[in-house]
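the two lines:
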Amino acid sequence: MMDFGCSRDQRLIGRRSMLVRSGMGMAALGLAELCQDDLSAMDANSAGAMAVKMPHFPGRAKRVIHFFLNGGPSHVDTFDPKPRLAHFQDKTVPELLPTERKTGVAFPSPFQFKRYGQSGLEVSELFSKTAEFSDDMAVVRSMYAQVPNHEPSLMLMNCGDSIRSRPSVGAWTLYGLGTENQNLPGFIAMCPGGYPIKDAENWQSGFLPGAYQGTFVDSKERQVEKLIENIQHSHVSDELQSHQLELLRKINQSHLRKREDERLEARIQSFELAFRMQSEAMDAFDLSRETKETRDLYGDHIHGRQTLIARRLAERGVRYIQLWHGAGQPWDHHDNIKANHERMAKEIDQPIAALLGDLKRSGMLEDTLVIWGGEFGRTPTVELNNQGQSKLGRDHNHYGFTVWMAGGGIKGGTVHGATDELGFKAVENPTSVHDLHATILHLLGFDHEKLTYRYAGRDFRLTDVHGQVIAPIVL
Amino acid sequence: MKLHWLWRSLSCLSILIGINSSLYAQHKSDLSHDDFFEQMIRPTLIAHCLECHRTGEESGGLSLETLSQILIGGDRGAAIDKSSPDKSLLIQVLTGSHELKMPPDGTLAPDQVDAMREWVQRGAPWPSRVKRITNSERTSGLSARAAMDEHWAYQPMGHVEVPQLGSRLDAECENELDHFLLEKLSDHQLGFSQPASRQTLIRRATYDLTGLPPTKSEVDAFLSDQTEDAWEKVVDRLLQSPRYGERWAKFWLDLARYSDSKGYVYAREERFWVHAWVYRDWVIRAINQDMPYDQFIRLQLAADQLANQPEDLAAMGFLTLGRRFLGVSHDIIADRIDVVSRATMGATIACARCHDHKYDPITIDDYYSLYGIFRNSEEKLISVQKESEQNAEFLDGLRQRQAKLAEVLDRYRRDASQRVRNRIQDYLEAQLHLEDYPEAGFDQIYTEGDILPEFVRRWRDYLEFQSTRNHPLFGAWHLFMEAPEDQFDQAAGEICKQIQQFGDRRFHPEVTKRFSHQPSSKLEVVHRYAELFAEYLASVDQSQDWDGAKQGTDAIGDVLFDPEGPCVIPNESITHTERFFPTNQTEEIWKLQAEIDRWIKNSPHSPAYALTLSDKKQRMLNSHVMRRGDPTLLGERVERGFPRAFRFFDPSDPSIAESYQDGSGRLQFAKAITSPSNPLTGRVAVNRIWAQHFGDGLVKTLSDFGTRADPPTHPELLDWLTLRFIKGGWKQKPIHRMILLSRAYQQSSLVIDADDLKRSQRQDPQNKWLWRFPRRRLDFESLRDSILFVSGQCDLLMGGKASQWFDSDRRTIYCQTDRQFFSNTMRTFDVASPDLSISRRAETTVPQQALFFLNHSFVLDQMRSLVANTASASMDEKIHQIYSRILGRSPSVSEQSSARDFILNAKSIRNDTEEKITSAWSYGMGRFDSAAGRIVDFVALPHYSGHSWQGGAKYPDAQLGWVQLTAQGGHPGNTVDQASIRRWIAPDAMEIQIDSELSHEPSVGDGVHAMIVSDRSGILKEVNVFHQTKPLMIDPLSVEKGEVIDFVVDIGGGLNSDQYLWSPIISSVDTLNANSSLIWDARADFRGTPFVDLDPWVAFAQVLLSSNEFIFVD
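prediction for all of em together
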């Protein structure tokens, strides 16, 4: 932090507080008087849909930070070493499973694996910095999805259903828990440069109220004002806006007098929240408030900044934060996986490590669930072009892939499940995406079978009729 | 087939079972025996066991349908042993500890096995009410029989007497509705609230029927109308307004999951529908014309067979503008079934896609009966305008594009047929391994050399269809294929004998010839058939068109060339045929189709198009039941028809009571839905109207009239009104009229007497008996429309292609809905998700909504127009005008004075702020005179780019070079003497402090040189910064009035990567009063033209617009 003695905002608030005391502050007071005989109604109402709600049982995680490596990172090149592939080098594998495109012979990983930490977790050089936190991670090496295509797999991973329109995990989380900071959106999806494949569907609220939809932020944007819709008020001075709100409150109060109605009160409150959100959101995204050391630790590039913003959002009580790698599907390396994976990993290895380190130091890792993964993995066999020649890349693989989690009630240093000896298919403790979702909800304090929403005559849940908590990786 | 498949699977199984899960124990063990059976045991038995172990199919002599059958067991003895669960055969085969391993199609999940074990441990509890479970078991809570007898919504509507309440209460009633309502109210010691004021009433009704506020003159006219029927006249006027259709169409479009775009479509199709707006306009028109509701529904389902005028074909957009679901037809059809059944009948039939409905008497068979209807319907894009009336240029372009598509399509279809005919052996062989070709969406990329699963299935369906026909060619095929694998030799001998016996009388001569001796395996059967076709092919010229006249006379030729045969791609749109082509060809065809769509979409002269369904020309195929909704788990085929539990609605009406044989059955389905004897459709429609007027329906769950729905609050009223609706020719306007003319509608939303209010609230907190009128909040459409309306900008043009949300002044219903990029603003305001059939929107209150009012340029622009349109007048008069424009009333005395205070106050703030900021800062370039210790030659930078001050529009500027200042920092000029200077001038003598840090980020070059210089006391701070950040702080500093403080940066050594970040904050230090300290923040204060605070009048109008009074309707 820059040492200003007191920050600009504190001072502004100082100046503002005067206005607030004369104007806005009264609103709460006035309301309290009006609602004396029904204070609980006001409590329930003050934040509306976003009020903090209690889960089914005390959750270990209070918030989630999800690194989404869209496109599909290769598990056999990152967190699932397969030395046996070398034995099959240039040979046909015993069981070649059909994927989106044609693949050929076995393709041993061009990356070196090393053991890390007390757990001795094997991780490739691509994530050597992240791997320093292997004792905090639980690596699920036996994930599987349903089809080898991005679109359905993105939907499955984000919303629990490959095709039908369903609320995303983040939306369910907000529905279940509300959010701790009313001055910021509760669910933020950051993606530098534009939308991932499937666009806003990845963070949709489906049949849940629209308030639970993720707020998209193009983290490539450096101007704070452009990050959140309607957050800037450059057309009006703080003073005048305060006066507007004071007049609005007055008008609304007299309107309310004859009409006790909690919806009217809620709306009065929402303007006060909005007023505060303007400065708080600006502050959350303003990295100039971090020291140079911190900024350097994360790296002064898009992913460093995005990850640092994620930490600032998490600190401010944002409930669910998704960090997409980039527009489209940047991890989709059908060819030249060595150079391409190297380039991608380099962009996020350091930021992830910096974040884990930061969260650990501050103690926040205790109740922050960090998730890493894509929509599926990649084949251990090499992808072929139309002429049947090797492209030195890998095709999509939904039969087996890796996701890891850390913090927030995760048992560190554990490996759960395994793919076959070549890494094609999950064979030991196969873990479905529904299981993963059940586990995330469990860590947040929910019985995934009981977090339901009535729509179209039926109680829907994130895991539909599936899902089992992955008990061995949960503390 | 089954035995063969089973055997194959068994031999290659290595089952991994028995991984215990500790969580399972936590969750399940506390279930009651009955629940445990229902949740854990029955589903497993049905899904994994009963196919082979049921009455008539007792594999190994074992049936698992009843408890006694399980206890008696099969050939290997009892299936379970209650005394030692782990020694039970059932458990052993499931856990893999027995030589026999079950189920043959793979492993059960560990928790299923554990549950089975626990079930035996519990002593195999079997609920007493369950006699027998079967594959088609009715697991629903309500049998069809009970449905008929019990559930209110399924009962016919009988004659209902309007209740008479005695003269005192009767006098309070305006019409029949009030009699029903007041009866319930008085049962609960409640009554109507006082009548609402005329001012409130006209606002309420105008919003309710048109989605817009009344104009001042409409209000005045009503207030001064002393005639008896003043209110009736208002209601009738509103019902005649074209705005009525625009308002009420939206509710239907929410149910129809309306969107102008298709959702994600890979990058190959055009992502917008070309017909959506035409459907939207059709709905608006139909509602404005008060088209009878039954006809309204029938046209939307079967206009292809009912439309008297081509425009009505547009109605079918209801079915066809759903999501594209990546082209997966099972999901497209599921969506159609869901939308149709919930929107029209409040029946949640889509719940039965995977299993029988849990609560309602809808079975999985019923779902697939409807599925068959849609499966046999094909999409067609049809222009609803005659070609002779169309623009020639448009037609030209269209024909060119269509010709290109036709040419390519034709070529690829021929190529595909050729390839299939040349690989008949492969396609026949594939029939032995159908499980390798699951029906699913696009998941693999196919080339011309691949066996295409879609053709495998076409062969499968073709063969299956032929089996019902005693086919001379394939009769023998079926005999062989049905032979048990382990007794094939024996069976094949028998079959050959039979073939020879019947000979050419029943079998094709080529078949009798080829099966004179016995094949040794099914594969050999395949080979002999393949040979048969190959020989035939060698004898004909394939390049010739197939002579349709020969159809039916040449059985082999039929198979190979008939357009309905298994070797030809059906001549349907690419939507239906895309999986018959290799992937690259599919993409090419889609792109050509997209060219056509784009031409229609973008051409200003394109006519209206409808995307219709019509019955397929090919033979109708009943659909298989897909168990668990899984297209790879095919059950029996089911006949198309209305859900069986609903067939008692009218046994004399074939569209309701009989299965559908003619065509797809869509028309009959539409008739069944809209039959006056269908007790659901009318009730659902009337209830929806009620709910839009009163906030809640008589039945709360508007789209669910199943057994889990709340029973109606006023069942007699619902039936009375529904009967009236149907007898009145399904017209909606009379129902609106009756509701609006009721006393209930005209009552106030306020209860004046505090005691009355408390008592009523205690008695009926939810107001379900309607003791007052429920206050409504404007939905997003009404909100946006009203803003445009009060500002005077609303463009009331009707119909046509969609406009964009915020750069159009048209009503919101005409603005584009994009389900793929559904905007945050709309989501924030609870607009219905365009992917789901929504009967009632959520109503949330979140700060993002407030931010919209505070900061969205749309709001500001509209308020600017509003203020610009108020005639310049005295302040009081202007306040008056703005009140009346926005709130439709005059301000009270105290409101008038608050408003006046606000305007005066805002004016002074505006001047202060502007003055403070603009007079303090300037941005320029200059030179530091080291001898004088001062900045000299200061020149202001001439150009503002929108975010920086610089030399000119082009950067770097030809004359001034790289010099630039932004909010955050800047760039020095090209030489040391062209330093960038951010200048601050003290407005008064005071003590200040300066907080800042300067960052130079690049690692190349040599960094920059920076100074803070006072024109009174010279250099205050000086640093060189290269690839680092340094603080520049001064605390405290006394300045004189007018003293200049310059923040100076020059290039230091050389010009290379000299951009920097430096935005100082200057604050006055007032030791007496911390709160009165003044701050100049270089970043926040940075602006091009002097900052002009919002116009006080606009600010004022914005406040009124943001008020609860504007958003809520009493």
